[in-house]
Every structure is written in C-alpha cells, then in structure tokens.
Write a structure and sequence with these properties.
This protein has 280 residues and is an all-alpha fold. It is built from nine helices and two strands; from the N terminus they run αααααβααβαα. It has one domain: CDP-alcohol phosphotransferase transmembrane (TM) domain (Four Helix Bundle (Hemerythrin (Met), subunit A)).
Length: 280
C-alpha cells in the first residue's frame, strides 16, 4: 500500500499559517509622484553639473571656473526639487500618501539636497582656479553627512507640530549653492558651507513652510529661478541680481537661527515668569 505524499500539503499549510498579513497599499499617490519628481530633479542636477561643468573642464574645452548655463541648469533643478518637496507634503496632508511616502521622501531628499549640492561643491573645488579640490571634497562630505544624519533623526524623533529641528535640507542645499555662486574667496566660502552643515544637524528650531510661509517660500523659489535665468541669458544687471539673491539667501540662513533662538529663550523666560507667578 502506497502512503499518500503529504509533503506538499504540509508545506502549503505552513505557509498559510506563518504567512504575513497583506501589506498596506503601495500604489503611488499624487504626493508620491511629486516626491519622485524631486528625486528626478536631483539626479538631473548631478547630470548637468557633470556634463556641463566637470567634463568640459577635464577635456580642456571650457573656460576656468563654473560654466554659467550649466551651473544655472543644475541649481534650477535643485530649486525645482525644493518645489516638489514643498508640494508633496501639502498634497499628502490634503489627500493621502502611500505606505512608502515617508521613505520615498527621505530618499529623494538625500539625492536632491544632499548628493546634488555636495557634488556641486566638489566640482566647484576642481574647476575654480583659487579653490582646493581636497578641501572642497571634505566640505562636501560634511554636507552629505549632515543631510543623512538629519533625515535619520527626523525619522525616529517626534517634535512639536509646526517646527523642524535643524535647518531644513532644501534650505541648506540652496544656501550651499548660493555660497558658491557668490564667488567669494575660497576660505570664507568653505567656512560658510561647513557652517550650513552644522546648522542642519543642530537643535535650532525652524518653522515648517505652511500657509503664508509656504506661499512666501514658493514665491522666493520662483524669483530665484528668474535671477538664474537673467544671469544665464546675460540680461543687463543679471549678474548683480543673482548676487543679490544669493546674498539674501545666505543672510536669511545666518539670521534665522538667531531669531529662532531668541524666540525660544523668550518663550522659556515667559514660562518661568508664569510659573513663579502661579507659586506666589
């Protein structure tokens, strides 16, 4: 008498008993599509920095320094990435995001606001006459590490609603490229880049771009794109306009921490005064 083969049925039953529950929906939402647009812009910024600035320099086909059109294309793409990053959060709050939304956002931010500006700094250090490539590479590594640490901390900590802890990575990326486009001497530029990296991992609180602040951020991004276009096309006063925009960006990066710290100190003092009044 032949015994029935129970191997297959046992294996199937074990899978049915031990199999995980069905995962949450991984279909991409509108917010996820915007997040992917962020990643695409960051990657294309690296592409234009390589093909338009680094390769001509290595082949001896370009002039010394950063190519205007290629640098403008790369920075414009980073600005577009920040627009996608701004709107994917707004859309996710209004509609929905898939189960992958948070992970997609972190990965896209790492490309657009970590890798792309850091690579921009490295190429600037290689093609500019008065720069030092190795020192620029160290500063670029610090930028990448700051963004990685910032995104990791954001994923595992909970803050009060409406604030970021540390300079937001899109704002930090725009400040880094603004420092390069200002065409300051090498040492002050490097010090500024390292300072931005430190601010991104600091505990200084920054307001989230919501409501009126989101509108102001969007308008400022569009104005910055206009400045880049004027500079690239050689519009009279375009260079001065770009320099003014970069200077305003760096000024905001320098004074926002002071403003945020002052506001926090005043809040703590007010709380202490209230506590003392309540105990009397």
């Amino acid at each position: 008498m032949i015994e029935p083969d129970t191997t297959e049925s046992t294996w199937v039953s074990e899978l049915e008993e031990d199999g995980p529950d069905l995962p949450l929906s991984t279909r991409l939402s509108i917010a996820d599509a915007l997040t992917l647009g962020n990643a695409i812009c960051g990657f294309m910024a690296v592409y234009f920095t390589t093909t338009g600035v680094l390769v001509p320099h290595l082949m001896g086909d370009g002039n010394s320094g950063m190519s205007k059109s290629s640098a403008a294309n790369a920075v414009t793409l980073m600005l577009m990435a920040s627009v996608f990053d701004l709107f994917d959060g707004l859309v996710a709050r209004k509609l929905r995001s898939s189960a992958m939304g948070a992970e997609l956002d972190n990965l896209s931010d790492l490309i657009s606001f970590g890798l792309a500006p850091a690579y921009f700094v490295i190429v600037w250090g290689l093609v500019t006459d008065d720069a030092h490539g190795k020192v620029a590479a160290v500063a670029a590594v610090l930028v990448v590490l700051a963004v990685v640490l910032r995104l990791a901390r954001f994923s595992c900590t909970t803050l009060r609603d409406g604030v970021f802890q540390g300079m937001p990575s899109p704002f930090g990326a725009m400040t880094v490229v603004s420092l390069v486009l200002l065409e300051l001497p090498f040492v002050p530029t490097i010090i500024g880049i390292v300072g931005v990296a430190w601010l991104m991992v600091s505990r200084v609180e920054y307001p989230k771009p919501r409501g009126r602040l989101a509108l102001i951020t969007f308008c400022w991004t569009i104005v910055s794109m206009g400045c880049l276009a004027a500079w690239t096309l050689g519009v009279p006063g375009g260079h001065q306009l770009l320099q003014a925009g970069c200077a305003l960006q760096c000024t905001a990066a320098a004074f926002l921490p002071c403003f945020a710290t002052t506001r926090r100190v005043n809040t703590m003092r007010a709380a202490r005064r209230e506590a003392r009044t309540a105990t009397r």
